[in-house]
Amino acid sequence: MTGSALDSPVQARRAIEALRAGVPNRDAVLALGSAHPQIEEQFGRLLAEAKEQPTAPRSPAGFLIAGNFGTGKSHELEYLQQIALREGFVASKIVISKETPLYDPVKVYRAAIQAAAVPGRVGAALAQIAGELRFDDPRYLDFYRWVQGPTAALNQRFAATLFLFERSRHDPELRDRIISFWGGDPIQVGEIRARLKDLGQRVTYPIERAGVRALAYQRFRFVAQLMVAAGYAGWLLLFDEVDLIARYTLNQRAKSYAEIARWTGNLKEETTPGLSSVLAITSAFEAEVIDGRNDREAVPGKIQLSGNEADRLLAGPAERGMKLIGRALRLAPPDAATIDDTYAKVRAIHGRAYGWDPPPADHRGERLASTRMREYVRRWINEWDLKRLYPGYEPELEATTVDLHYDEDAAFESPAEPDAGDSLG
To answer: For a tag site, which of 44, 45, 170, 404 has the least CB within 10 Å?
Structure first.
């Protein structure tokens, strides 16, 4: 997939504003393309394997990309998302933050659903996908049998609500509540039982208790296959700012390392058919956090001392997650050819955005010590802005390096959702 020309000055301006702010958007990403062919090739193989067997018990293994601050990790994820949408996948870009901690599957699921983008569509993704189900389609029939069977390993809430959804074509209110449940909201078990009783099916679906964390993982499994049943190639998760797990306590980092292993398909005991993931992290994370804090030994060591059996089971997955971080594909710093190519593209976008011919800028950055592409791009845009507004002015721009730190921060220790029973399901 190559860079795409922008069709109008409005699109060009959107791209320039995004590049100026350092926040990639669709217009900017499609115009600039990717400068990392090895990542694009790996991603292409991931999508091809996922499309070939979307209902296979094991999804193809995902991977991590690593780069320094400002080297284009977010740009690359946005670019991969556009490729996935073009290939027929539903794609969710999830930014790890205080509000969305990696170790909390409930909050990660909510973020994934809210961010889900459907190829060629806008609006609430899950409602659109559910509305595209065709109950006589072989893909739906396979999905229905899978949900009703034991291999899905799903709580009976999902089989029961799918049964009700299919038979509630003339009850939009019930359908909305079911879709909300699939999207992460609670639904009263009593209502499900009453609706099933009306259809003579109460005994068929014995609904057992389930904690919210367990239901979150099951929602990922259910919805990924729901997307396949609706005709999509699968579900792609793109995790950005994964390095923020450095701010967590050791126990929460351990859970987050285990989640990295989970989302890349490296937990043999837990799989999510139809779902693939790519995660972005800083290059320095391994040295500064895993090695610098001795997490390779401290994490499994502390977990093994825990009196909680569930915590002790984290040791193996956490170790796998740390190893995967060390194997991340690296974003190479821009070489001269990449800088020249990006400069020409940004110059053309700026010219289209403002209807002028931008004068030559210091595009190799003789006065710029950094190798971060973001600094190059923002320097060019700022210089052109000043020259366009003040003809004849020769700006002198300075760049200041912002040092990152990986210190633990109590503000990032967001409490996980309580793991209660079916009143929260």
So the answer is: 170
